[in-house]
Each structure stands twice: as C-alpha cells, then as structure tokens.
Design brief:
By secondary structure, the chain is of the alpha/beta class. The protein is about 35% helix and about 15% strand. Strand 2 and strand 3 form a beta hairpin. It is globular.
Length: about 350
Amino acid sequence: MTAGDAIVGLPVIWHPDCLLHEPDGEVWLGVWEPGSEVPERAAVLLEALTSAGAAVTPATAHDDAAILAVHDAALVEHLSTVWADWEAAGYPSAHGRRRVVPYIFPTEGLLSGLPPRSPAALHGRAGLFCYDTMTLIGPGTWRAARAAADAAMTAADLVSAGAPAAYALCRPPGHHVGTAAYGGSCYLNNAAIAAQALLRVGAERVAVLDVDAHHGNGTQAIFYGRSDVYVGSVHVDPGAGWFPHYVGFAEERGTGEGLGANRNVPLAPGTGDADWLAAVDLLCEDVRERGADALVVSLGLDAAASDPESPLQVTANGYRQAGERVGALAPTVVVQEGGYDLASLGELVVAALAGLCTAASQ
C-alpha cells in the first residue's frame, strides 16, 4: 500500500480563514526580519493531502466552551479585539506600526509581587499576555486563529462520532499557548482545545502526544495539574539552547492530581530517526499503561532534517513510523503544529498520516 492509498478518505478539516493571518515577519533579537510561519505552509499541506486522496471537510463553527475551558476569558478577549483597537488608535497609519508588537512584559521581576494591571496605553497592553516579540498580530490574525480552533473541534467531533482518525489543518499553530499567555507564533492552543472537546462529549481520559521539534510548553501548562489528560512531548533539548528555553525538561512530571501525567523527552541536537522513535515509543508506552479513550497528536514537521527551525534530523520514513506507533493507540485527532520547509512539508505530512491511518485501520 502506498502512502497515498493509506490516506484516501482521511478527513482533512480545513477552513480558508486560516490563510488570513499574515504576520508580516517577526522581531527576532531586536531586528525585524522575515518570518517562517507564513500562509503558504497551509497551502502546501492542503495541496499534498488532496493530491494523495484525502477528503477535505469544512470546519464548522463552534461555541467557545472548549476554548474557555483551557484559556482565560481575558486572553480570548485581548486576542479578538487588540488589532481593531490598534488600528483605531492610529498605530499603523500615524506611526507606521503595521502589526501589534509588544515591547514591555509584566514579568515577576517588574511587578515584584504586585498584582498585574491592564495598562492605559495600548502599546503597553500589547505585552500583557504575549511573552515574546515574534508573535505579531495583524488584521487577519484572530479570524485565522479562531478558524484553526474550529478545525480542531470539528476533528474532535468526527473522532467522537466514531472516525478512527481526523486531521485538523490548523494554522496558525497553537501548542505554545498556555492558559493566559501566548507566543511562539501561536495564539490559541488547538491541541488543548481538541482534548477538552473530546472530554466534553464523553471521553474520560485523553492523551496528547506532541512530536513538534519544540516543547509544547502551553499544552503542558494547561494540563499540568490535571489527571484526565496525559501530555507527552519529544523535542529538542531546551537546555541545549532551543526555544522555549525555560521549560521542557525531563524532571517536569506534573503537579497535584497531575503528578505523573506529564512527560518530556528532550533530545540532543542532531538526533535522527532511531533515538527520536525510541522517545516516541516511551510516550506510547505511557499511554498504553494509563489508558486513553482518545488521542490528540500535535504534529510538528519541523523535526525533519530539512527544516530550518530545529537541529533534529528526522526523515520522512521516521515520520511514517511514528504515525504507525501512535495510530495504534486510540482514535486520534491530529492537529498541525510547526513545519517550515515548504519544499518538504507535503512529503512529510503524507508520510506521517499514512503511517497513522495504516495502523488505525488494523
């Protein structure tokens, strides 16, 4: 069976509004430069999957219940309104600030124990929820992020209704967004929203497996004290100098009721298929031991050797084998995360999903 044969009929959940987010670059180490999280990413993935025979299913509109179960209402309000406020205040037209970019952040060092406030100045408020200068907001950002969340929830609906697997083509990605903080080119945590949606309609235990090259710090934070959602992540070692730098270490195992329900497997730069797959196996064994009614996979394609955003060296065959491993665990919602080499994205996504579909059908 070819990779294309394996994914014929796989529901690919898509909303065209995901193309509306145009970050127009990013501020990296104080310099404005071209960004890598561009609309073309989604277009390449969609073309590859439709060419391979996957069935495109439109994302349907959902209420905010699953979103507000994992994100503070204040964060959602900020994301949905800040661009209109920015534009109305004249920042693009009068000051040439064509995107919302924070410049000051309410860190504990600044607040020194005082309660955070909402600044009077909008350019001060821009950093209230954002934790980096890379995650810019423009005129289409909120519609794209909300459409991506609807795609994730639609995929969860299909899996809850009996589909063995569904793929949400989410853009922008989401796994770096926590309860009340966003960054890492992410605005809403699509994987966490999908997990919460699965729980909402009857799943008792959900597992989230994150195979993006970078630690899913937001997903970890959202579920860190909960026992109903296991979170496992394999990623390049933040201790070797990689984003998100401050979290993603092996000793982070959860807290309270969630103790033991979180596992990180950080890998050295240069790690290839064998050790990466061994880490995936470790997470899969956790899921088998704990049990899961449903699975959410944060599928980052940036662990690939061709990707400019990480030093891991995973091949398309490695991704296919990973798909085979996770597809055998439980009915699965796949949520797209990173992956930035436009030339290789199509081959990689088809390989990963072909492996998953092959295992899920057995």
